[in-house]
Specification:
By secondary structure, this protein is of the alpha/beta class. The protein has helices at 11-27, 41-47, 66-76, 89-92, 110-126, 174-180, 222-233, and strands spanning 2-7, 33-38, 54-58, 81-86, 102-105, 132-136, 141-145, 149-155, 158-163, 167-171, 186-190, 193-196, 200-204, 207-210, 213-216. The chain is built from seven helices and 15 strands. The longest helix is centred in the first third of the chain and has 17 residues, at 11-27.
């Protein structure tokens, strides 16, 4: 059951979006969802309790810009998928700042919506919180959610797992961890970093910003890394 929040001040637009979801449900067996509509950013922010998997957010609202509402949401929830729904493409580009997955342009049409929503579902299915990785030291064994790993860093003979909650340092090789994480959305940006593509916020030249951390992209890995990122965004990684 996918939990969807819709931030849209025009009822006709939110009704259309829910109509698209119902149409998608009728054509795709097994898809189910719940949806709640908010007509102002303050209502969404005031009642938000990390209780959505996906947020469709309008940009122009009566009380604030959708991008500002998204900034507030990101303070308490780094993982919810955000998709902007707008007729202002120039604002949607700013979505990289809040790690937005994509944007849908108005006027809303079901034809473009269906394949984009399928990609959204593909990505959400790959980030299930039920997938875990076991890390061992001489003293302790840790179980960490794969989805919580932001990136893995080589430090001497150790690996540092930078996660949403904390850092873990264990002995090991990046090649072995890369094998353990095969099938998940991770890609090397250089010999020292294995990046969770879910947390990529921006790529600029030979640097990638991953949830506030700026990492170097090596020249020989840049092409493959960008291809992996494009496939992830396209839902085919």
């Amino acid at each position: 059951m996918l939990r969807i929040g819709i931030l849209e001040d025009e009822k006709a637009q939110s009704d259309k979006l829910i109509g698209f979801l119902e149409r998608y449900k009728s054509k795709h067996n097994g898809f189910s969802y719940t949806a709640k509509v908010f007509d102002t950013g303050s209502k969404l922010i005031g009642s938000y309790k990390r209780n959505f998997d996906l947020l469709f957010m309008d940009i122009r609202l009566p009380d604030m810009l959708g991008i500002d509402a998204a900034r507030e949401i990101r303070k308490s929830d780094k993982n919810v998928m955000i998709v902007f729904v707008t007729n202002l493409a120039q604002y949607a580009i700013d979505g990289y700042e809040v790690n937005a997955f994509d944007y849908i342009l108005k006027p809303l049409m079901y034809g473009p919506f269906e394949p984009k929503f399928t990609r959204i579902l593909n990505v959400l299915s790959r980030t299930s919180p039920e997938k875990w990785l076991t890390l061992k030291t001489k003293q302790e064994t840790f179980l960490i959610k794969i989805d919580s790993i932001i990136y893995v860093e080589v430090s001497g003979h150790d690996l540092i797992f930078h996660t949403v909650e904390k850092e873990y340092r264990v002995w090991g090789t990046l090649s072995k961890i890369e094998q353990d994480l095969s099938g998940a959305a991770f890609s090397r940006c250089n010999a020292c970093y294995l990046v969770n593509l879910r947390y990529v916020e921006q790529v600029k030249g030979y640097f990638v910003k991953v949830r506030g951390h700026e990492l170097n992209i090596s020249r020989n890995r840049r092409k493959d890394f960008l291809e992996d990122l494009a496939r992830y965004k396209g839902g085919s990684f």
